Amino acid sequence: KILDQGKSVLFTRVNFTEGMGYLAAYDTQTLQCTKSYKIAPSSIHDCHMLDDRHVWVARTGARPAKNGKGSYGKPLIKTGLVCRDLQTGEIVAEKLSDNDHTLISHFRMAQSGAVVAVSAPPGGIEEKFTGSMFFAAANETQLTEVIVPDDVRAQVKDEVLSITFDTAESMAVITNPGGQIVQSIDMATGTF
C-alpha cells in the first residue's frame, strides 16, 4: 500500500523470533524500513488502506512458525481483521471471526464497508479443517462464516484464497485452488 504521496510503501511482516506481526513502512527509494507498527502477537497477512491514516490488517491469531513458513496451531488470539490508526498507533476497530478453527488470511472491503474474508486451516493440529468464507456488513463487528451446501463444502480443500467483486459489488467471487472450485457470496445478504 502506498503512503506519503508515493514516498513509502506499507507491508505486513512477521518477526518470527518474537512471534509478533507488524505493519512496516519502507522508503521507496532506499528500501529501508522507516516505520514499524505492532499489530498482534501472531502472524498477520493481508492489509488494505481505508483512507490516508487507517489500515485494515488480517491477523491469523496463530503463532508464526519458527522456520518462517506460515502459522501453526490453534489461534492464540481471535482471528479476524483489525484496523490500525497510523497517526495515533491505536487499534480502532476489529471484525473478529466466529470460527476458532480457522486462520483469516485475505479479505476485500466493498465501498459500502461490507467485508468478505477467507481463511486457511490451522496447521499442526490433529483435527482436519478447511478454509472458509466470512462476511460482515459495514456496521457489524463479527465476521460470520458463510454457510455453504454440504456438497460444496466437501469439495473445499485447504485454503480459500482469492476474492474479487463484480463491477457493481453485488457479488463476491472466491477461489479455492486446492479444490479447484469457485464460490460466490451475495453482498446484500452475506449468503452463498
Tell the overall outline.
globular
Q: What is the radius of gyration?
A: 16 Å
Task: Name the beta content range.
Answer: over 45%
Structural class: mainly beta
Strand order of the largest sheet: 5-6-9-10-14-13-12-11
Uncertain residue segments: none
**Rounded mean pLDDT score:** 89
Q: The biggest beta sheet, please?
A: 8 strands, mixed
Q: Figure out the total of helices.
A: 1
First CA to last CA: what distance?
30 Å
Give me the strand/helix succession: EEEEEEEEEEEEEEHEEE
Number of strands: 17
Q: What fraction, in percent, of the residue positions are helical?
A: under 10%
Question: Could you characterize the architecture of this molecule?
Answer:
With about 190 residues, the chain is mainly beta. The chain has one helix at about 150-155, and strands at about 1-5, 10-15, 20-25, 35-40, 45-50, 55-60, 65, 70, 80-85, 90-95, 105-110, 115-120, 135, 140-145, 165, 170-175, 180-185. The strands form 4 sheets. It has an 8-stranded mixed β-sheet, with no helix packed on it. Strands 1-2-3-4 form a 4-stranded antiparallel β-sheet, with no helix packed on it.
Notable characteristics:
1 helix, eight-stranded mixed β-sheet, mainly beta, 192 residues
Short précis:
With 192 residues, the chain is mostly beta strands. It has one helix at 150-153; strands at 2-3, 8-15, 20-27, 33-40, 44-49, 54-59, 63-64, 71-72, 80-85, 91-97, 103-109, 115-120, 133-136, 142-145, 163-165, 171-176, 181-186.
List the helices and strands and how they pair.
Layout: E1 2-3, E2 8-15, E3 20-27, E4 33-40, E5 44-49, E6 54-59, E7 63-64, E8 71-72, E9 80-85, E10 91-97, E11 103-109, E12 115-120, E13 133-136, E14 142-145, H1 150-153, E15 163-165, E16 171-176, E17 181-186
Parallel strand pairs: 10-14
Antiparallel strand pairs: 1-2, 2-3, 3-4, 5-6, 6-9, 7-8, 9-10, 11-12, 12-13, 13-14, 15-16, 16-17
